[in-house]
Amino acid sequence: MAKIDTSGWKEFVVGELFPNMVKPSVLHMRQVVEMDEGIRYVVRTKFNNGIKCRVQPVDNVEPSPAGVITWGAENASFFYQEEPFLSGRDIYYVDTRKYSANVCRFLATCLQTIVFKYPYNFGLFPELLKDERIMLPVDNNGEPNWTYMEVYMQKVLDEVEISIENLSQIKNRKERVDVKKWKRFHLYDNDLFNIDMGTKMDKAKMTELNPEVNFVGRANNNNGITTRVDKIMGVEPYEAGNMTLSLGGEYLGSCFIQPDVFYTSQNVVVLVPKWDMSFEVKQFISAMIFKESRLYYKAFVDELNRHIKTDFTFLLPVEADDKPDWKYMEQYMKDMIDVSKKVIENFELLNIC
User: Fold this and answer.
1) What single DSSP character describes residue 16?
2) DSSP string spanning 25-65?
């Protein structure tokens, strides 16, 4: 959904909008008996609408009503509760039962903007919340525009429902790949790579005054890039598009396509393709190298150093002549990229609310 234009919104004092803030009866942990079909138990957490579990009702602890917005004094997060609930220590609720569920969800999101002003050890108690202010959309009379909130949240829920359905379809489309007819290859086989042992540099001795070269270490995030360093006179960096492979350490087998020129640390080799491999083929191969490395080699015990140019092999799909099936690899990764983009788009929609 498009970003909301809040330029015409107005500030309201929370306590004037919602004077009825309640501290419900407390169900202490020692009284909790979990029960699958029981009543919801709300505690001070930022997850799952504040619900820890479902519990067995207790005779002397009265449930709070559905249709209210809860928050915790510490670790405060505002959640709309659509069912009656029991609650733990320092849980409160704003009585919003006269508003629709959609309006309450909208209000909970607006109230959440207050939380960032209060550190964990400084509780957001009702007396403080009543004096806080929140921004809300307004109608022609300058009053909260409840209709706008209702309609907007329904649009969000509709989009979320579509997103969940799309994610479900993506999950259901996954199929286990049959590798029974695949063949094993060495990195140095024909049509694969020249293996270069890297620049073997010490990051601590590098300078960063005018950084223009990536420095690739034994890391498993950001393509293995740990920093950006100055170019060293007489030492040409490797070209973008080559691949790096960590031979040992905690992230043994981490294999990445490098997006820019780079140097390497010790125990990081460079795989230079023997032909103009596509990005997707490189991605496929890097995944297979990583899988093989993590299955059959062990950091600090049996690392890749002594295997990489001798007996290290990995599986690839092949054509009828037992040569690597480059078209299959390329199309497979293109499909995976398309699926990943859809997953990201759907998660972005889910994060709206």
Assistant:
1) H
2) PB--GGG--EEEEEEEEE-S-SSGGGEEEEE---TTSPPBP
Neighbours of 67 (CB within 10 A): 19
**Secondary structure of residue 210 in the 3-state scheme:** coil
Q: How far is CA 227 from the centre of its chain?
A: 23
At 159 the pLDDT is 77
Please answer whether residues 282 and 337 qualify as being in contact, where contact means their C-beta atoms are separated by less than 8 angstroms. Answer: no
Long-range Cβ contact pairs of 65-70 (< 8 A, separation 24 or more): 65/97, 66/97, 67/96, 67/97, 67/99, 67/101, 67/104, 68/22, 68/93, 68/94, 68/95, 68/96, 68/97, 68/104, 69/93, 69/94, 69/96, 69/104, 69/107, 69/108, 69/111, 70/42
Tell me the per-residue pLDDT of 242-271, one tens digit each, with 9 for 90 and over: 999 999 988 999 999 999 999 999 999 999
Residues 6+ apart with CB under 8 A from 342: 166, 170
φ, ψ of residue 250 to 5 degrees: the values are: -60, -35
**Closest to 305 in 3D by CA, of 233, 248, 242:** 248
Give the whole-angstrom CA distance, residue 137 versus residue 7. 9
Separation of first and last alpha carbons in the chain: 11
Say which residues have a Cβ less than 8 Å from residue 279's Cβ, sequence separation at least 6.
257
Q: Measuring CA to CA, which residue among 288, 225, 230, 281 is closest to residue 258?
A: 225
pLDDT band for 179, please (50, 70, 90 cuts). Answer: confident
* CA dist., res. 268 & res. 61, Å (int): 62
CB 54 within 8 A of CB 39: yes
| CA distance readout (Å), 137 to 15, 67, 98, 132 | 17, 21, 18, 17
Q: Which domains does the chain have, with CATH numbers?
A: 10-136 (3.90.220.20), 143-174+322-353 (no CATH), 183-316 (3.90.220.20)
Listed in sequence order, the residues at least 6 apart from 73 whose beta carbon sits closer than 8 Å to its beta carbon are 44, 90, 91, 92, 123, 124, 125
